[in-house]
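Lab meeting, item 3. Inverse folding demo.
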């Protein structure tokens, strides 16, 4: 029996031949016929019984693949369990058992007449197949950077602002001093006091219309799969089509948010500008221009935020959560700063030892990162092609907690998450109902669609501080 386990014996070269020339192909591959396509094989070097078994196995395989025999005969040929199947095999393919001990034929079949390598050749395809799914759908990490609003329709959205009337009160002189109070005296008959007038926001800040506007837009993604592809899909490839549309929708939202404050050339100048004084530069109180993300850079960002004033020149008080926005290259730096601990050294009234080591060591948290939540915006290097896409960072107060948020994003009610739809099938069996698998009557395609309705704009950048991280 050793000859059947030799390399190259049996059907290990059979391949996936499914036409009527299978027998000839097998004989040629095994070197069993003169003029073989494989010159290295000598047809007369194989034992006659071996050659006969290979030929009969090839005939059996070709008959099964072409529908002339029941596929169960393949299984019975390798592991006999049904007497009627063995009888049929011996009658129609007697060469399968040529050279096998007659006393073993009934219970052995092809198991002892073929090598282990022939088993996979006879079954042709891989036995263990697995389709790995797509990447895990990540949440929209930058959603905290916008103030989310529900919109009723597709009409233009307008946002107005009023400034003034927030200066500290004026001291009223006492009549004892002989001074008269003229602060509330109208300038003319019927005119109101002008000491605390209100007006729309300055034109140079909000543009010629003295308002901020945006309009929600429709976003969609389409997918189509043919019925024939669905029939052939034994790995479930098309079962996650709707999931992929949902991932595409979430990515659309992430990219849209990044585009509100970043452009291909760097920061959006409508939001990050000298008008809002929210650049981390020496002109706005920082110790250096556009510092890299570090302890000193973060303290400079705090300085810029705490120096903010309104259009009346009065200081602004910000409330709410602070977020540290970083590009992917700075994520590890941000997390290291969030976990860092500072060590302060003091002698505490005593004396140092001979080596000069102090008697006390005080350990404190890295206070600039206390309560600050890092947010990684993976879309910065996608949106921005400038050099700063690997060094950009910023410190932002929660827009939802501000009367004038940094960014606003509006969604049509019910469309703040991707909505998935399928085209209704219009193919019906004669005398029956609609067949959902056949899809469209003409193309036999099944069509899917994902929808989003959203819009957004920049509102007021004073609750944020930004650095390119390039030191210039």
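The presenter then showed the designed sequence:
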């Amino acid at each position: 029996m050793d000859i059947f386990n030799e390399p190259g014996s049996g059907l290990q070269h059979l391949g996936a031949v499914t036409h009527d020339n299978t027998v000839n192909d097998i004989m040629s591959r095994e070197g069993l016929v003169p003029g073989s396509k494989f010159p290295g094989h000598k047809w007369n070097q194989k034992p006659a019984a071996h050659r006969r078994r290979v030929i009969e196995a090839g005939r059996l395989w070709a008959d099964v693949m072409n529908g002339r025999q029941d596929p169960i005969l393949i299984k019975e040929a390798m592991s006999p369990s049904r007497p009627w199947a063995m009888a049929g095999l011996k009658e129609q393919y007697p060469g399968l058992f040529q050279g096998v001990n007659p006393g073993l034929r009934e219970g052995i079949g092809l198991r002892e007449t073929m090598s282990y390598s022939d088993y996979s050749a006879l079954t042709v395809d891989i036995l263990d197949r697995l389709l790995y799914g797509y990447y895990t759908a990540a949440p929209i990490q930058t959603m905290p950077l916008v103030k989310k609003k529900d919109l009723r329709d597709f009409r233009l959205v307008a946002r107005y602002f009023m400034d003034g009337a927030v200066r500290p009160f004026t001291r009223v002189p006492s009549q004892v001093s002989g001074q008269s109070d003229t602060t509330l005296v109208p300038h003319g008959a019927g005119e109101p006091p002008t000491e605390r007038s209100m007006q729309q926001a300055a034109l140079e800040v909000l543009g010629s219309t003295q308002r901020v506007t945006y309009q929600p837009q429709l976003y969609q993604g389409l997918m189509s799969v043919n019925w024939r592809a669905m029939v052939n899909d034994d790995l479930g490839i098309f079962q996650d089509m709707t999931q992929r549309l949902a991932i595409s929708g979430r990515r659309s939202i992430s990219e849209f948010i990044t585009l509100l404050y970043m452009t291909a050339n760097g920061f959006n100048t409508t939001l990050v500008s000298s008008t809002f004084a929210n650049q981390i530069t020496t002109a706005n109180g920082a110790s250096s221009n556009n510092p890299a993300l570090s302890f000193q850079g973060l303290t400079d960002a705090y300085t810029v935020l705490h120096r903010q004033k309104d259009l009346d020149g009065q200081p602004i008080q910000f409330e709410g959560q602070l977020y540290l926005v970083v590009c992917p290259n700075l994520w590890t730096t941000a997390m290291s700063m969030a976990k860092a601990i500072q060590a302060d050294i003091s002698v505490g009234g005593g004396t140092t030892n001979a080596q000069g080591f102090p008697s006390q060591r005080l350990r404190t948290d890295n206070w600039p990162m206390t309560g600050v939540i890092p947010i990684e915006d993976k879309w910065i290097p996608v949106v921005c092609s400038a050099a700063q896409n690997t060094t950009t960072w910023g410190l932002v107060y929660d827009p939802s907690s501000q009367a004038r948020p940094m960014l606003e994003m509006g969604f049509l009610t019910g469309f703040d998450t991707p909505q998935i739809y399928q085209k209704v099938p219009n193919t019906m069996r004669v005398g029956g109902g609609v067949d959902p698998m056949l899809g469209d009557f003409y193309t036999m395609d099944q069509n899917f669609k994902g929808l989003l309705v959203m819009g957004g704009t920049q509102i007021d950048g004073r609750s944020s501080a930004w650095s390119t991280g390039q030191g210039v």
